[in-house]
Design goal:
The complex is a heterodimer of chains A (about 400) and B (about 300). Chain A has 15 helices and two strands. With about 400 residues, chain A is mostly helical. A two-stranded antiparallel sheet of chain A has the order 1-2. In chain A, helix 1 runs parallel beside helix 15, helix 2 runs antiparallel to helix 14 and helix 3 crosses helix 13. Chain A is globular. The N terminus of chain A is likely disordered. Chain B is globular and about 60 Å long. The model of chain B has no long low-confidence stretch (mean pLDDT about 90). The N and C termini of chain B lie far apart (about 55 Å). The longest helix of chain B is centred in the middle third of the chain and has 28 residues. Chain B has about 300 residues and is mainly alpha-helical. A two-stranded antiparallel sheet of chain B has the order 1-2. Classes of the chains: A mainly alpha (about 400), B mainly alpha (about 300).
């Protein structure tokens, strides 16, 4: 059976690899070993891509008259050099991992949901709204789950809207999710700069000796109460349970796709809408559920950002974490386990990049450049993998 | 009204260049999501070249060349290496965002450069016509160039052999291949054209409008242009109309407050995206998209 023409190309290769794995198992060979080959190959490509991207980055720094070695060792220090740095990196990894697994879930359903940035914004705003509304007189065990649920609902609803536009009006979800990112960012900006909505009440800035005070309104909400902040795991570091939520989400997506009927339907729609419809799958419902779940995961990233890191929602709270999360998913070639590793890598590069810039070694923007290159490099190996897989099959068969 | 139409046309020009280039690229089956990257890269190139040589023409030419260069990389990746078009687009956008931010700071550590501006060229005689004069005939040269480009694209796409190949590459690449024409060559040419157009858009944006480069200044214009292609139904006059409509939405941001309408600034900033989304959603459903859009071509396979 040939996959549908609309089958997403990035996965085309792993779908192909999977079908080869199935062929091999039918021949009585070990199915696990075929999967293993695929995983090792993916890891090899990712490692090579990272190496190439870092080399290009080093070349740029060298040409600019800087020391790549000093820059990258500063980056390493900032990423994983101290317990404090590790904690920060893991917290950031959570924010990249959640949208990444959301993207993967939608991707496996054949959908390109690039709305993670918007999901983060509305999710963060919803979490902050719940935390602020409930105040400090409630139990953490009540307010945190409620805030997380609100964030997931908000992100899910935004994404569901794109799904509905696709189902009802055939609007390509790539476009609608992109447009909604910009709209969501402005919507949250409106919420946090409008008194009576989410804007912080009278900020008083005391200047000098305290005689002159001015009141100014920033586009941000008040700080959320202590009870609503994500619990820290290790005293003295900032490590909170965000990364735990992220890894759980990755496992959830693996189980959902691999072990449940709903997940099976997702994958059926992903490998061909016509075939799925003829097999009796309610394609529209599957698209809507997949979009909603994807948005919910992105919303949780917003909650992790608000409840774990910034303790408030503010204008411009995410400088593109959603897009970076999608890059994480693409680097991992839509594998949730791979996404965990890729999220930690990208988070470390980002935070390490800040240290690198602060130390005067190199501008942080080089990090973005290298991260993009990693994904370009991974994406450019499609043909390579096809040929390689063919050779494996010839030798095996 | 004169002011409104004038600034609507002004703000539509980058969108027109972007959307027309994208339309040609999509016609051959390549969705180029890297428009943002091309816009940013060429805007920086225009800054550097124009300020170094104090020549607008060299700035525009360099911008077009850089747009083509980025397009060449994208074309090799998606056409030759058959990488996923959306993935490459998203990644290239990030690469160029990082690169331009880096370069801009590295080159101009000591302060912003003096960039020569693209002057307004009033057409003698015609610019005296009431209404049409101050709106259509008082624009920058790159606008008048569109008067050549739009019919040119129409002629090439619908009346020339290359156009037939291009349209067939997007709808039935197998047939093109069977006719002995290289689909890959046609697609690469189309993406390169798209890059040049995006480069001109970047040059206009910088030399004609803003005058200074800022990080991430493309600000989603590339995505709006892609929406214009969809809303325009992949047809040249539809795409031109859509770009003008979205340009009008951009203009409202400045015009509504001037009319005394007190709307939240955020609503005005989101307006172009709301209009674009609504436009596509209310679009009558028709199958106008090139059949092979997003599908890489491999010989001997369907």
């Amino acid at each position: 059976v040939k996959p549908s023409r609309q089958a997403p190309q990035l996965l085309d290769l792993s779908a192909e690899a999977r079908s080869r794995a199935a062929v091999e198992s039918a021949r009585g060979r070990n199915r696990i070993s075929a999967k293993l080959i695929q995983a090792v190959f993916g890891l090899g490509i990712a490692t090579a891509a990272v190496a190439v991207a870092f080399l290009v980055g080093a070349l740029v720094l060298q040409l600019d008259g800087r020391s790549p070695l000093a820059a990258f060792s500063a980056m390493w220090q900032g990423a994983l050099g101290t317990p404090l740095a590790i904690g920060n990196t893991m917290n950031r990894a959570a924010i990249l991992l959640l949208p990444a697994v959301g993207f993967i879930l939608a991707y496996r359903t054949g959908l390109l949901n690039v709305g993670a940035e918007g999901h983060i914004y509305v999710g963060g705003a919803a979490a902050a709204a719940v935390a602020l509304a409930m105040g400090s007189g409630v139990n953490s065990l009540l307010v945190i789950p409620l805030a997380l649920a609100a964030a997931a609902t908000a992100g899910g609803a935004l994404s569901l809207f794109s799904g509905a536009l696709k189902v009802a009006r055939k609007v390509p979800e790539v476009l609608s999710t992109l447009m909604l990112n910009f709209i969501a960012i402005q919507f949250v900006s409106y919420l946090v700069s409008t008194p009576g909505l989410l804007q912080e009440k009278h900020v008083i800035i005391t200047q000098g000796t305290g005689y002159s005070t001015t009141s100014r309104n920033f586009p941000q909400s008040s700080l959320i109460p202590e009870v609503a902040r994500l619990p820290r795991w290790i005293e003295g570091t900032s490590l909170h349970i965000g990364i735990f939520i992220g890894v759980l989400a990755a496992l959830f997506v693996i189980m959902l796709l691999g072990r449940t009927i709903l997940g099976f339907r997702f994958r059926m729609v992903g490998s061909g809408i016509t075939a799925a419809r003829q097999a009796g799958v309610n394609v529209n419902r599957v698209i809507l559920s997949s979009m909603a779940l994807c948005g919910a995961l992105g919303g949780l990233a917003g909650a992790s950002l608000v409840l774990g890191d910034r303790f408030r929602i503010l204008d411009g709270i995410s400088p593109g974490f959603g897009y970076l999360g999608i890059l994480v998913a693409l680097m991992a070639r839509a594998s949730p386990i791979g996404a965990i590793a890729a999220a930690i890598l990208f988070a470390g590069m980002q935070l390490g990049g800040q240290v690198m810039e602060a130390g005067g070694h190199a501008p942080q923007s080089i990090v973005l450049f290298v991260q993009g290159l990693v994904v370009v490099a991974v994406a450019s190996t499609v043909e390579l993998e096809r040929r390689w897989m063919r050779r494996v099959e010839r030798q095996g068969g | 009204v004169v002011d409104f139409v004038n600034s609507m046309i002004r703000l539509s020009i980058p969108l027109l260049y972007l959307a027309l280039g994208e339309m040609v690229s999509e016609t051959t089956g390549i969705l180029n999501l890297g428009l943002e990257a091309m816009l940013l890269g060429s805007a920086l190139a225009a800054t550097v070249a124009a300020s170094a040589t104090d020549s607008v023409t060299i700035g525009v030419a360099t911008a077009a060349a850089v747009g083509a260069l980025i397009a060449f990389v994208v074309a090799v990746l998606v056409v030759r290496l058959r990488a996923d078009q959306i993935v490459v687009g998203l990644a290239v956008n990030i690469v160029v965002l990082g690169m331009t931010t880096y370069l801009f700071r590295a080159i101009y550590e000591k302060g912003f450069p003096e960039v020569p501006g693209m002057g307004i060229a009033r057409i003698p005689g015609l610019s005296k016509i009431p209404f049409l004069g101050p709106t259509i005939f008082s624009q920058r040269v790159l606008f008048y160039l569109l008067a050549v480009i739009v019919p040119g694209i129409w002629w090439v796409l619908y009346r020339s052999p290359w156009g037939l190949r291009a349209r067939a590459s997007g709808d039935a690449p197998e047939a093109v291949d069977a006719a002995g024409i290289k689909v890959e060559t046609v697609r690469i040419q189309a993406v390169l054209f798209c890059g040049i157009m995006a480069g001109l858009a970047g040059a206009y944006l910088l030399l004609g409008e803003t005058g200074t480069f800022t990080e991430g200044m493309s600000g989603g214009r590339g995505f709006i242009a892609i929406a214009a292609v969809v809303f325009g139904g992949w047809r040249i006059f539809g795409v031109v109309g859509a770009a003008l409509l979205f340009g009008a939405a951009l203009t409202l941001r400045f015009e509504l407050p001037a009319l005394g309408l007190n709307l939240p600034n955020q609503l005005l900033l989101a307006l172009p995206y709301v209009v674009a989304l609504a436009a596509i959603a209310v679009l009558p459903q028709r199958e106008a998209a090139p059949a092979a859009l997003l599908r890489p071509f491999r010989r001997g396979e369907r």
